[in-house]
Model the fold of this input.
Amino acid sequence: MPPVPSSTPPSRSWADQGLYALVVCIWGSSWVGLRLQVGTDVPVLDSVLYRFGLSALVLFGWCLLRGIPLRHNRHQHYAMAAQGILLFAINYVLFYNSARYLPGGLIAILFSTVVIMNLALGALFLGARLDLRVCLGAAFGLLGIGVVFVPELQTLSLESGTAKGIAFALSGTVCAALGMTLSARNQRHGIGVMATNAWGMGYAGVALLVAVVVTGTPLRFDTSLTYIGGLLYLSLISSVVAFAAYLTLVGRIGVARASYSTVLFPILALILSTYTDGYHWTWEAFAGIALVLFGNVLVLYRPRPVAAPVVETCPQVAEERV
Done:
């Protein structure tokens, strides 16, 4: 009997895994770049404006260079504007503010709840089927993240702005989930990822500039190498490259599976914090990582379809049936 072909071609499977790993690596390290910007004299609105303004310019230039169509109808522009303002403007303003009150690890925990939000939004607005294996994988992942940060959660206090930081982070996560769902919807309607990101980040930049003017926020810039280095990394790598990879992944494997990367990248952030923040590993950390990896297997594993049994018949019987 010939082997049963997989429902997912090997080349596509490897491409999906490569995109997935790229997203985890970039966003897992982006917390370092974000910390380089938060805490300076530059207001949050300004930092987010510079980040996505630069990202939009780079993406528009890339689209023009590659001949990617940038002309869309009015309704498509509405959809891209909504995605951009939610996913690139409001989301990041809220998370930058959250980083002023909470450590990066705790913010990562809160953002990982986007997996559950995406499962719900995908079922409500995209007609996605709630796969039991994906739901279980997400549950194991979130449990693992919670176990990893048990020491941090035990010492959590609602004093010193912590409650405000949690509110910022959860609100930002809701905006991110809505923006990711809109991205999946836009891709279903034939709008390419690069063009969508270019227009979305452009609209986000315009919205942020309006917010700066309306709120009377002074435009400031930090010329230190630390701030500029963080800005370039967040604009070019974390925004342009990672969002292109992530939203492409959303279109290929679905919002639920793609969003599990948001459970994995806090683990990488934790590993990096061993060197940047002097994080001390505990048994909870190792147990939590094991749960996250097990959840990752459940989410990403796609069983091969079971082949129907081949019934062999002799020529005489076949002729009689004819």
User: Anything to note?
Assistant: The CA atoms of residues 165 and 236 lie 27 Å apart. The chain has a mean pLDDT of 79. The longest helix spans residues 225-253.
